[in-house]
Automatic annotation (TrEMBL):
Keywords: Oxidoreductase. InterPro entries: NAD(P)-bd_dom_sf, Sc_DH/Rdtase_CS, SDR_fam. Belongs to the short-chain dehydrogenases/reductases (SDR) family. Its EC number is 1.1.1.-. This is SDR family NAD(P)-dependent oxidoreductase. One of its GO terms (molecular function) is oxidoreductase activity. Pfam families: adh_short. It is an enzyme of class 1 (oxidoreductase). Transmembrane segments: none annotated.
Length: 230
């Protein structure tokens, strides 16, 4: 039986991914600082482990908990992330965004590989492949995630990124109506969950997948540049 770990699984994209894999017979572990993750886990017959992804030991502990509870670990979706840094520089906000989004990804990849995962999907964003002038620090963190995903060569492990546009989650709840008023599409978390499932099943690695409302997931095409070591 497939064992899946989802960080940031208490709501939004993470909860949708957890429900989708559980619905297909997987054992699912939800990691989140939000205690509502326990309710999602109870709903799907999974396991909730309180986790701050910005802490190395929390990433190691949730992987260990998954292996202890279900005997192994197959798929890890590193979805936990925060934004709302805005355009005014705030040192505390900057450090927290980078700690959760970038450190959490790095620590999560490390723990997942050590725990035997065979497929890792990281949630980046369209803001990770194009400018996001409304939140430069968030955009920088998501660009960095793309760099990690495209650069890591991990034997026997696939690693990819999913890059959603605006998704109907708590992160956009405060300005969702304005997005719709301006004619911007807002996708459902289920669309991203379907993309994550497709990415894992596809078996490719080092790719970034764009997900936007009403469109099929698409691999992002990056310029090819050869880097030589000197």
């Amino acid at each position: 039986m497939t064992v899946v770990l989802v960080t940031g699984g208490a709501s939004g994209i993470g909860a949708a991914v957890a429900r989708r894999f559980a619905g297909n017979g997987a054992q699912v572990v939800i990691a989140d600082v939000n205690p509502l993750g326990a309710e999602v886990a109870a709903e799907i017959g999974g396991l909730f482990v309180p986790t701050d992804v910005s802490a190395v030991e929390d990433n190691d502990n949730v992987v260990a908990a998954a292996r202890e509870a279900f005997g192994g670990l197959d798929v890890v979706h590193l979805n936990a992330g925060i934004g709302a840094g805005g355009t005014d520089f705030d040192l505390d906000a900057y450090r927290r965004i980078m700690a959760v989004n970038l450190d959490g990804t790095m620590f999560g990849i490390r723990a997942a590989v050590r725990g035997g995962a065979r497929a890792i999907v990281v949630t980046s964003s369209l803001a990770g492949i194009s400018p996001a002038t409304f939140d430069p620090v968030y955009s920088a963190s998501k660009h960095a995630i793309i760099g990690l995903v495209r650069s890591f060569q991990i034997p026997d492990v696939t690693i990819n990124a999913v890059c959603p546009g605006f998704i109907d989650t708590p992160m956009v709840a405060g300005f969702r109506d304005r997005l719709l008023e301006h004619g911007l599409a807002v996708a459902s978390p289920d669309e991203v969950a379907a993309a994550v499932e497709q990415i894992v099943a596809g078996g490719e690695s080092n790719q970034a997948w764009e997900v936007q409302a009403g469109r099929p997931p698409a691999v992002v095409q990056f310029p090819t540049v050869e880097l030589s070591q000197r």
